[in-house]
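Student: I would love a firmer grasp of how sequence relates to backbone shape in proteins. Thank you; the sequence and its tokens follow:
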Amino acid sequence: MTDFGYREVSPDEKTQLVGRVFSSVARRYDLMNDLMSLGIHRLWKRHFVATCGIRPGQQLLDLAGGTGDIARLARERGADVIVADINREMLATGRSRMDAIGLVQGLEWLQVNAEALPFAANHFDHLTIAFGLRNVTWRDKALAEMHRVLKPGGRVHILEFSKVGLPALAKVYDTWSFQVLPRLGGRIAGDADSYQYLAESIRRFPDQPSLAEQMREAGFERVSWSNLSGGICAIHRGAKV
């Protein structure tokens, strides 16, 4: 059994349920991100990509990247990007957004499962995943696959919600997550249940040291993390040596 928010479900059921969540929210995903984070997610993502060390001409795989936000920022730095997501609706939404602003060159869009990546070993210079790792059914398999497809010297960069360190902030954050977000989801996206799940999935995700240890178990070295906004989210990085 595995977790789907606060529920215990079979692995196959979790994969199906997560798929339904993101199919449901795809069209309103970016608007809801703006409302949920008061727009701060855009600053988090820009800082995340700016500190990845991306150089022109490098190959980058962006997992769970359907909306295209990370890909757009990586293209600004000259990387060639494969945007990979398990959800067809999210990919379609992201590709439509990038096409609308004329961002076509240097981008490829693929529907893939992070637990079984269809790429050769030692292929990518960088791998990013932003706010997607907590939705993977088998995190250990996904991390092992990330390690496999990176070149020696390549780096993984994970942006994910994490453990808030300040008690006063944690209390406000809990109120916002469980009282406000589902109501926003119901009113704006017509789906309160999906946003209830998303809030629960954040609380079930490993804290900063635990995720770092899981990365080391997958083979990554020089693992580090840095908190953003008091630990509401964190950036984890590791290298394939």
